Amino acid sequence: MPHLRPYVSAVVRRIPITTREQRVEALDLAGHNPFNLPADQVSIDLLSDSGTGAVSVDQQAWAQRGDERYAGAESYYRYRDALREVVPYRHLLPVHQGRAAERVLFTALLGEGRISLSNTHFDTTRANVERLGAEARDLPNQELFDLDSDHPFKGDIDVAAVREVLDGPDGHRVGQILVTITNNGGGGQPVSMANLKEISALARERGVPLILDAARFAENAWLVIRREAGYEDRTPLQVSREAFELADGAVASLKKDGLSPEGAFIGLNDTELADRCEVDVIATEGFRTYGGLTGSTMEQLAQGLREVVTPEYLADREHEAAYLAERAHHAGVSTIRPSGLHGVYLNAGRLLPHLSPAQFPGHALACALYREGGIRCAELGSLYLGTLDENDQLTTPAPFELVRLALPRRVYDHSHLEYVGEVLAEIAKNPESVPGYRITENPPILRHFRCRTEPLS
Ligand SMILES: Cc1ncc(COP(=O)(O)O)c(C=O)c1O
């Protein structure tokens, strides 16, 4: 059966068509950091899939019904009920975005000297653990380190390694086990239900809370249905619910699978823990029935949650990511395999072997994509993850030099992705012409968001 995209554009936004000269100038002004580019100079924006999707006409229609009363607004109850369909926890607290949910829950669960174990902590998640004086320890499935392996669940947590920590001298310091679905820091790879069941049994046996970082719960459920034996006939809603039931709680940014520019939640069964979180939410986000969100946003989220678990939508998402990966391969650029759903991760280290990690090949490819085609994307390599000395020289490189092409939901069609493939092919024809980079301004924290760089001559 040929694939039919299950929606069309109802409202459109013009994208700027720029010249190479304009882009060279824009990149100079931005200190060669794509995060500093004004969006009106970007033609295809693949920097993030977070909050960048297109909303549906049904979401817009519901948003008109936003009830903005301070407490107990109708919009809150509609949002809570739609969320509870998917996330069957006793307590659901709204907050404005994922990192707020992390801050509130981790403050209640962790503290100085505690440990958070995870398949991979996402960058803001790690920051929210570390700011409490706690340790964020990643224990991913070792398959994650073979970029070319087609293992279907490279996002899994290493259960044996978790058991070893719990049994060892640090065991009593573990405050939570956090499983990120899908594993964004690990290439958007899914976590299997078998792995979730195993870690859930271990966490319950040891009395350690198991928390999901569930920003892409629907995408994870879809990849389970597509890849895990025994789940092929289940619906995305059933699989999502089952995943949440295996955990004790969740934090989730709904800027991804809530199909909304804003929103997140904390979900918990434990009433005492939920009470402590509620006090923090009221003090820092907003009353417990809005948590910083408008009534319109809560209505939009309720409808987004209904749309995101439809098989047609998720099948289209899979098709789109596979198409972009196929275009990259056609251009001669390898990607992390197998492709996930929220983005395609390019292996810049392999494409640009003339650049050492100290010359930041991932960053060089991200800048080349903008310079040659007005395409914005993010480096996930030594600029972001490497360790530098006081002279900004790289001392420990990242394990891989990657570039993430994140896919905003329902925004770009095949012609846009084909264009990305064509620009990549132009770069791949003459990779030695791509210059390396050096850092000119290196802020002490959150370097990749804030640094300035310049090309090496
Ligand atoms: C896995 C994961 N956790 C947490 C977050 C943080 O969410 P937010 O951007 O809504 O603060 C993100 C955002 O990209 C994410 O991908």
From TrEMBL:
<keyword id="KW-0663">Pyridoxal phosphate</keyword>
<feature type="domain" description="Aromatic amino acid beta-eliminating lyase/threonine aldolase">
    <location>
        <begin position="45"/>
        <end position="420"/>
    </location>
</feature>
<dbReference type="InterPro" id="IPR001597">
    <property type="entry name" value="ArAA_b-elim_lyase/Thr_aldolase"/>
</dbReference>
<dbReference type="InterPro" id="IPR015422">
    <property type="entry name" value="PyrdxlP-dep_Trfase_small"/>
</dbReference>
<dbReference type="InterPro" id="IPR015421">
    <property type="entry name" value="PyrdxlP-dep_Trfase_major"/>
</dbReference>
<keyword id="KW-0456">Lyase</keyword>
<comment type="similarity">
    <text>Belongs to the beta-eliminating lyase family.</text>
</comment>
<dbReference type="GO" id="GO:0009034">
    <property type="term" value="F:tryptophanase activity"/>
</dbReference>
<protein>
    <submittedName>
        <fullName>Tryptophanase</fullName>
        <ecNumber>4.1.99.1</ecNumber>
    </submittedName>
</protein>
<dbReference type="InterPro" id="IPR015424">
    <property type="entry name" value="PyrdxlP-dep_Trfase"/>
</dbReference>
<dbReference type="Pfam" id="PF01212">
    <property type="entry name" value="Beta_elim_lyase"/>
</dbReference>
